[in-house]
């Protein structure tokens, strides 16, 4: 049974059940909500601030009903900062996520902290949370960044619900704002990833071949001819290449958050579908064989310093033998582009997109392309594929029109 009280009331006579106190005093209620397992004493919940006795009684009945049904949650005063810090430890200790995933969640938490750091979880409303997503959007954050932050927020608040720290998650029903494309953007095809046409790729590689190192050329060639990710390329080992069968096994990716050459880590690829064996042409194998011959000479010249890890693409400066970092190749791309004479902003990932476009042009199925690239599903790959195969759709419509000619 709830205990209702009115403290500090100076009114005479006292207010009725449904009337407000003229002096401004507020009602409160106290109800029993179980036994503390550590002390054996009863636990109570007290809530104040009700204008009338009736309001306090109704609120008390709701708490009593929830307790009787086993749905009552005694919300705690833990702040977002404190709980998210503990949550990240649990997330990392689960053994189900890679270190790189933990780092991504940490960045997202720091972003959310700017809004909710010292606010108790129970005081963060759906409106507060939705306003945060809108504010991120208004400050120019990309859709992908906002979605990553939202995904992290959902994980944190859902865990808080699971642990009965809060009753419900403020992330429910939230929407991620998206910039609506203008007519001009739609007509110009804006949003299509950069990739090289077949002749552009040929010219790009032809001009670079004699102007850059054999290893640099091999990196670009393998990226363009296999479509693998830069992180997968950096940790390819000679043992991954089967020169007899003409295949390359992709089983790992490079993780190095601080870009410290010696502090590298090998991780499993992005998804389970990313672990794959891809078939390559004799052209790719020849480029790799030529590099292997040159690498043996390089090892001999740096024999005292060279640390053997069996990597194909190695650091050629202070730490020979260690895998070359993604950033190293990325930083070289503007120089390569300038040499090639192309008026485009290219990255290592551009060559992955190029591989997709050329496979699509060769009428390879979307499913086969995704399998080769290690994708289970990918929006960008689909966009490129649909763009390249537009002519095929036109041919289909034209053939149908010819079939129905005369009607």
Which structural traits does this protein have?
407 residues, mainly alpha, DNA polymerase, domain 1, hpI Integrase, Chain A, 3-stranded antiparallel beta sheet, DNA integration
Question: Could you walk me through the main structural features you see in this protein, from its secondary elements to its overall organization?
Answer:
- This protein is mainly alpha-helical.
- It has 3 domains: 67 residues, no CATH class; 83 residues, DNA polymerase, domain 1; 194 residues, Orthogonal Bundle (hpI Integrase, Chain A).
- The protein is 49% helix and 9% strand.
- It is built from 15 helices and 8 strands.
- The strands form 3 sheets. A 3-stranded antiparallel sheet has the order 1-2-3, with helices on one face. A 3-stranded antiparallel sheet has the order 4-5-8, with no helix packed on it. Strands 6-7 form a two-stranded antiparallel sheet.
- A hairpin with a 4-residue loop joins strand 4 and strand 5.
- Helix 7 packs across helix 11 and helix 8 packs across helix 12.
- The longest helix is centred in the middle third of the chain and has 20 residues.
- The chain is elongated and about 100 Å long.
- It starts with a strand and ends with a helix.
- The mean pLDDT is 88.
Lay out the secondary structure.
Blueprint: E1 3-6, E2 27-35, E3 42-50, H1 53-69, H2 80-93, H3 99-116, H4 126-138, H5 143-162, H6 183-188, H7 198-209, H8 214-226, H9 230-234, E4 241-242, E5 247-250, E6 253-255, E7 265-267, E8 276-279, H10 282-301, H11 326-340, H12 348-361, H13 366-373, H14 379-388, H15 390-403
Antiparallel strand pairs: 1-2, 2-3, 4-5, 5-8, 6-7
Helix pairs in contact: 2-3, 3-5, 7-8, 7-11, 8-10, 8-12, 12-14
